[in-house]
Design brief:
four-stranded mixed β-sheet; three-stranded antiparallel β-sheet; 11 strands; 52% helix; binds protoporphyrin IX containing FE
Length: 399
C-alpha cells in the first residue's frame, strides 16, 4: 500500500509508474475520495479515479471543456481539427466531415483483408530470426509499427515511402519538446501529401484521402489544409493509442501465467482478450483535461480556473464498485461498461478500428508465433500515464 508521503509526492506527468505502481497510486487516491488533489508536470492538479465520478466528469463540458487541452498541446503541431474546436456545432460538423477516416467503405474493405495481410508482412520479417534463436522486441518490430502502417495504407500512401511517413509522424509528436523538429516534420508532411491530395481530387481511389475529399455535410467540404490537419490528427489519436493498447495487451498475456497459451489454444477468445486488455491496462491511463478559464465546482470540490484535471480512466477501470476483482486479468469476465474510449461528445470515433487492429494483430501473432516466451519481465511492464505502454517486449521461441 502506498504511504501518505508517497502519494503526495506522485506527479502523474513526470513519473513512469510502471506496472502495478500506477494502479496502487490510483487505488490509494480512490480510497480517499473520487476527486483528489495531486500533481501533473510539476503543477497542482486534481485526479478523478472512481467510475461514477469520471463518467459525470466526461459529460460535464461546462467545468471541463473537452477542447482546451488539445488546443494547448495538439493544435500547434497538427493544426486546426475538430479535436481542438471550441464551438460544439463546428466540432460536430468537422467530426462528421472526417468520418471517412474512422468508418467508410475504404476502412471496411481494408479491415476485411488488409489488416491481416499487413500483420503477416510484419511477422514475415521476424519469423526467421526467431526460428534461428534470436530475441525479438515485439514493441519495436510490431506494436509500434503496425498502427502507423495501418494509417498509411488506409490513406493510400505510396508503400516505398512508408518509413519516411512514419518518421515524420513520430517527429510531429515531439513538438512540445522540440518545436523546430516538429515544425520541419509538419512541413515535410504537407509537401508529401500535397501532390497526393491533388492527384486524388482528379482521380479518386478506394482510400481514405479520396473519401475525405468527397465527404460533404450541409454543403461543406474539407479544403486541402483541413485534409492535411485531419490526416495529422490520426497520428496521436490513432497511432500512439493503438501502439499502446497492443503493447499492453501483449504484456498482460505474457505476464499472466498461461494467458498467452490459452489464446493460442482458443482463438475464439481473442475479442474477450482485447476487451479485457483494454480494461486491465488502458493506453490513455490518465487523460489530462484543462478546466474552464473561470473557477468551477465539481462534486463539491473547488477547481481553480485553468487547472489540470486528470481523468484517470485506468482508475475507473479498476474501481471495485464497477468491476468485481478488478486487479485480476480475466478474459472470462463479463465486461462491465467502461470509459476506455471516453464518453459524451468527444468519445472515440476510432474505437471500432482500434478493436479490429488489436484483434487481427493478435490472431496473426498467436497463429504464426505460438511458442513465444518473455525474456525481460521488467521492460514488459506498461509504463507512463498519458500514453502507457511497455518499453520493450523482448521474446524468444520456447522450442
Ligand atoms: C485502443 C486505442 C484507442 C483508445 C484507447 C482511444 C481512446 C480515446 C479516448 C479516451 C478519447 C476521448 C478523449 C477525450 O474525451 O478528450 C478518444 C477520442 C478520439 N479518438 Fe480514440 N482511442 C483509440 C484509438 C483511436 C483510433 C484508431 C482513432 C482513429 C482512427 C482514434 C481517433 C480519435 C479521435 C479523432 C478522438 C477525438 C474525438 C473528438 O474530439 O470528438 N482513436 N479516443
Amino acid at each position: 500500500m502506498t504511504t501518505t508521503m508517497d502519494l503526495e509526492a506522485v506527479d502523474f506527468g513526470l513519473q513512469e509508474l510502471p506496472g502495478d505502481s500506477l494502479h496502487a497510486v490510483l487505488r490509494a487516491h480512490r480510497e480517499r475520495g473520487p476527486v483528489q488533489p495531486t500533481r501533473f508536470l510539476g503543477l497542482p492538479a486534481f485526479v478523478i479515479t472512481s467510475h461514477k465520478a469520471l463518467e459525470e466528469a466526461f459529460l460535464d463540458e461546462h467545468a471541463f471543456p473537452g477542447h482546451r487541452m488539445y488546443q494547448a498541446s495538439f493544435e500547434p503541431a497538427i493544426g486546426k481539427s475538430f479535436i481542438s474546436d471550441p464551438d460544439p456545432a463546428s466540432h460536430l460538423l468537422f467530426r462528421k466531415l472526417a468520418t471517412p477516416a474512422f468508418r467508410s467503405r475504404a476502412v471496411a474493405s481494408y479491415e476485411q483483408s488488409g489488416l491481416a495481410a499487413l500483420a503477416n508482412e510484419l511477422v514475415d520479417r521476424i519469423e526467421g530470426r526467431l526460428a534461428g534463436g534470436d530475441e525479438i522486441d515485439l514493441v519495436a518490430e510490431f506494436s509500434a509499427r503496425f498502427p502507423y502502417l495501418v494509417i498509411s495504407r488506409l490513406l493510400g500512401l505510396p508503400r516505398d515511402r512508408e518509413d519516411e511517413f512514419h518518421g515524420w509522424a513520430l517527429a510531429l509528436l515531439t513538438y512540445r519538446d522540440d518545436p523546430e523538429r516538429g515544425r520541419r516534420a509538419r512541413q515535410s508532411l504537407s509537401d508529401f501529401l500535397a501532390p497526393i491530395v491533388e492527384e486524388r481530387r482528379r482521380r479518386p481511389q478506394n482510400d481514405v484521402i479520396s473519401e475525405l475529399l468527397q465527404a460533404e455535410v450541409d454543403g461543406r467540404r474539407l479544403d486541402d489544409e483541413e485534409v492535411f490537419s485531419h490526416v495529422r490528427l490520426l497520428f496521436p489519436t490513432g497511432g500512439e493509442t493503438t501502439h499502446g493498447s497492443l503493447g499492453n495487451l501483449l504484456s498482460a498475456l505474457f505476464l499472466n501465467e498461461g494467458a498467452w497459451e490459452r489464446i493460442v489454444r482458443e482463438p475464439g477468445r481473442i475479442p474477450a482478450a482485447v476487451a479485457e486488455g483494454l480494461r486491465y491496462d488502458t493506453p490513455i491511463a490518465v487523460l489530462p483535461r484543462l478546466s474552464r478559464s473561470e473557477h468551477a465546482t465539481f462534486r463539491g470540490v473547488d477547481v481553480p480556473a485553468d487547472s489540470w484535471v486528470l481523468f484517470a480512466i485506468a482508475g475507473a477501470n479498476r474501481d471495485p464498485e464497477a468491476v468485481r476483482d478488478p486487479d485480476r486479468f480475466d478474459i472470462d469476465r463479463a465486461q462491465p461498461p467502461n470509459l476506455v474510449f471516453g464518453r459524451g461528445p468527444k468519445s472515440c470515433p476510432g474505437l471500432h478500428l482500434a478493436r479490429r487492429n488489436m484483434a487481427v494483430a493478435l490472431e496473426v501473432l498467436t497463429r504464426r508465433l505460438p511458442e513465444l516466451e518473455l525474456v525481460d519481465r521488467e521492460a514488459a511492464l506498461p509504463r507512463r500515464t498519458v500514453l502507457r505502454t511497455p518499453a520493450a517486449l523482448r521474446v524468444r521461441r520456447t522450442r
